[in-house]
Amino acid sequence: MLRAPGTSTVDHFRTIVRKMSKPTKHSVLLSGSQQARPERLSRGLSALLAEVRACTACAAVLPREPRPVLRAHQDARVLIVGQAPGVRVHETGIPWNDRSGDRLREWLAIDRDRFYDERRFAIIPVGYCYPGRGVSGDLPPRAECAPLWLARLLAELPRIELTILIGQYAQRLYLQNRRKASLTETVKAFREYSPRFIPLPHPSPRNQSWLQRNPWFASEVVPALRRACRSVGVYQSAPLLFTTDTRRK
Predict the structure, then answer these.
(1) Helical (H) or strand (E) element with 52
(2) What is the three-class DSSP state of 199?
(3) Does the N terminus or the C terminus of the chain have fewer Cβ atoms within 10 A?
(4) Chain segment 72-101, per-residue pLDDT in tens
(5) What is the total count of domains within the chain?
(6) Does 21 fall in a domain?
């Protein structure tokens, strides 16, 4: 989607998010000829991902060398939006390649190979590089990434039908004034954002106490998450597609 003359990047992003909020007819993933021959990345998305991965906009303030970590394919049906890479993800270059990712895949009821099949899941966090450590965990994601890149990335992903918003930063970015006063309230109101969005807490081991205090999450939200993924076809058997090495490191 080209940006209309006279509109800012932020306005362009908001326009795309509003369109994402409108329900669309679900289609079946990886059917017919797609099953027989996995499609390559489109030329436009391939070039854009290379551009994003070469970004050094925050180099002066990052604790390590910039290493934007994200994955996408023009046929992806689910977009996973997390906070920012942790140190292990930064070191391996593989998103959700840690204990948080193990729990997320458990919530999704999906194996590692299908999780990293880019025609099923695009993975674009709020911040693309490891932001460093704070007093009680990693620092918030850098604010520069979304204005620089997100509208262009989303415009290359026309088949996204479900966006999974993990944590308060993702929910703030995509839901904007539709989110509730707290993450707990937003997740509890997950039905309000269906079928385009589903908000989740962060699956970090640090959140174990939150999960224990909120048993409705496992009994209500996790089954709804799995139903939503099933409805867009990501559980189907089909040839897998990887553009980078996703073996555990």
Answers:
(1) helix 43-53
(2) strand
(3) C
(4) 999 999 999 999 999 999 999 999 999 999
(5) 1
(6) no
